[in-house]
Specification:
30% helix; alpha+beta; 4 helices
């Protein structure tokens, strides 16, 4: 953790954090916003594969949500990463991602991280490219979900980024 992050604590989310995660996602203006209910469920059911950054007062100021793929138990799929606007530019997203994958790899073998990124989301592209570089891993990309698969109107394609092999 850098000096700019020293006043923050990274740990597992709890159900009580669900509303704050929903707010941070909504205010990001780049993430697909899920229902507030889904963030509550996520904090309950996927806390072990997610992380939250807390300010000194304990309030969430950033998060990464993910899950271990059932058919590939050595792969973490990162669902969303977001940081409150007041805390951006401190490397917090990278610290959250590094902290989460270190925690998971201490509990089970972790050989790959996957995420999807829409074309033009350069912040996410930089985050995951730098993660791969820090961990000496390759990045492959392929369209996972074409734009035409989304039933709720225009949506950019979701490009799958696969980072691995990882060695912890």
């Amino acid at each position: 953790m850098t000096a700019a992050q020293a006043d923050l604590r990274i740990d597992r989310p709890s159900v009580a954090d669900g509303a704050a995660l929903w707010r941070i996602a909504k205010e990001s203006r780049t993430l697909d916003l899920n229902s507030s209910y889904s963030y509550l469920l996520w904090c309950r059911d996927f806390a072990a594969t997610s992380a939250v950054a807390r300010a000194e007062n304990g309030e969430p100021v950033g998060f990464v949500t993910g899950y271990v793929r059932p058919e590939n138990p050595h792969t973490l799929l990162v669902w969303q990463v977001a940081v409150d606007g007041a805390y951006r530019g401190r490397g917090l997203a990278a610290a959250l991602l590094d902290g989460l994958t270190a925690r998971i790899s201490a509990e089970r073998p972790l050989t790959a991280v996957e995420t999807t990124i829409t074309p033009g989301n350069s912040a996410s592209e930089r985050l995951f490219a730098s993660y791969a570089e820090r961990h000496g891993a390759a990045v492959t990309r392929e369209v996972l979900f074409d734009a035409g698969l989304f039933p709720d109107g225009p949506h950019d394609p979701e490009v799958l980024y696969r980072i691995g092999p990882l060695a912890f």
